[in-house]
Automatic annotation (TrEMBL):
Superkingdom assignment: Bacteria
Keyword field contains Cytoplasm: no
Positions annotated to bind NADP(+): T11, G12, A13, V14, R39, S40, S159, G160, Q318
Positions of the Semialdehyde dehydrogenase NAD-binding domain: 4-119
Binding sites annotated in the UniProt record for phosphate: R99
Gene: asd
EC number: 1.2.1.11
Gene source species: Oceaniferula flava
A molecular function (GO) term: NADP binding
Reactions that this protein is recorded to catalyse: L-aspartate 4-semialdehyde + phosphate + NADP(+) = 4-phospho-L-aspartate + NADPH + H(+)
Recorded family membership: Belongs to the aspartate-semialdehyde dehydrogenase family.
Protein name stated in the entry: Aspartate-semialdehyde dehydrogenase
Length: 335
């Protein structure tokens, strides 16, 4: 029998992608409840051949709901997820709100599926997209060689800022394409022009000089892999790409590494493939993974500087595996 499933933030980019994933994976649903702000209430969204009317989110929206997927920002999760959990609903939250809570599992189904069993708050957290994509590449190598440190730089799509990030890039590309200039009025999402530019800041700066996004990679990697001493340092950069994040990673391990063996580990590994043949100019680019489930790894090489280290490049769709698909896969694990 199907589940009574709610999506909070159904009208956003991730919410829409969740609907696509639920349909494509034939997720068993007896009733779909779409919840959003009063502004969006009343909208009708197609699902499995019928139109579902969006309802306004309230604290009482979760009576008899089995699973609720939240993707409406940290504020909404903070305010409404506890009410949903208290109503007996299993909450899968895509915001950063509960990720580091002791009693909340932080799950990538291909890595730590068993963690969902211990959910005293009835809340399961979906990791940050950059963490998911990076760890999809590193986990198979961790199983082989024992991961000890990560040095990474990310190249993050504008979809990470929601639909408005995509709009801002497209608008600026259009103006530049017609010989115009980007004005300050066109810089709402980002502090600088994003078209034909890169911005070495994702999310707010902290006192350490790292941004919140960079500290998410540090904290979430340790929790998901259960490696409390894992060393992680990264720089997260926004680039003028629509949907896929790319990450350049140098990873160090306990044991000596072998590139051929490392490349081969991805064959038949769920959710991640290798696209890696440098002699023939073969490696993954963001357009390869857009709207696709799997992440792709390439540029794998034995690192020239660090002992027992591999340097590689991984790409994944930020909206899909980075958010919506991962949340739906977690929902599939919930009995
Ligand atoms: C971003 N990872 O890319 C953050 C949130 N989705 O903006």
């Amino acid at each position: 029998t199907g589940k009574r499933l709610a999506i909070v933030g159904a009208t956003g980019a991730v919410g829409q992608e969740m609907l696509d994933c639920l349909e494509e994976r034939n997720f068993p649903i007896s009733e779909l409840i779409l919840l959003a702000s009063a502004r969006s209430a009343g909208k009708e969204i197609p699902f499995r051949g019928s139109l579902i009317k969006v309802k306004e989110l309230t604290h009482d929206s979760f009576a008899d709901v089995d699973i609720a997927l939240f993707s409406a920002g940290g504020g909404i999760s903070k305010e409404f997820a506890p009410s949903a959990a208290a109503a007996g609903c299993v909450v899968i939250d895509n915001s950063s709100c509960f990720r580091m809570d002791e009693g909340v599992p932080l799950v990538v189904p291909e890595i730590n599926p068993e963690a969902i069993k211990d959910r005293p708050k009835n809340i399961i957290a979906n990791p940050n997209c950059t963490s998911i994509i990076t760890l999809m590449a590193l986990y198979p190598l961790h199983q082989l060689y024992g991961l000890t440190s990560v040095i990474a730089s990310s190249y993050q799509a504008v979809s990470g800022s929601g639909a408005q990030g995509i709009v801002e890039l497209d608008e600026q590309i259009k103006v530049l394409g017609s010989g115009g200039e980007v004005t300050d009025e066109m810089k709402n999402v980002y502090p600088h022009q994003i078209a034909s530019n890169v911005i070495p800041q994702v999310d707010a700066f902290t006192e350490s000089g790292y941004t919140k996004e960079e500290l998410k990679m540090f904290n979430e990697s340790r929790k998901i892999l259960s490696l409390p001493d894992l060393k992680v340092t990264c720089t997260c950069v926004r680039v003028p790409v629509h949907r896929s994040h790319s990450v350049s990673v140098t990873a160090q391990f306990e044991k000596p590494v072998d590139v051929a063996e490392a490349r081969a580990v991805y064959a038949n590994y769920p959710g991640i493939n290798s696209k890696d043949d440098p002699e023939n100019g073969i490696y993954p680019v963001p357009l390869d993974t857009t709207k696709k489930d799997d992440c792709l790894v390439g540029r794998m090489r034995k690192d020239m500087v660090l002992e027992n280290a591999l340097t590689l490049w991984v790409v994944g769709d930020q909206v899909r595996k980075g958010a919506a698909l991962n949340a739906v896969q977690i929902a599939e694990l919930v009995e």
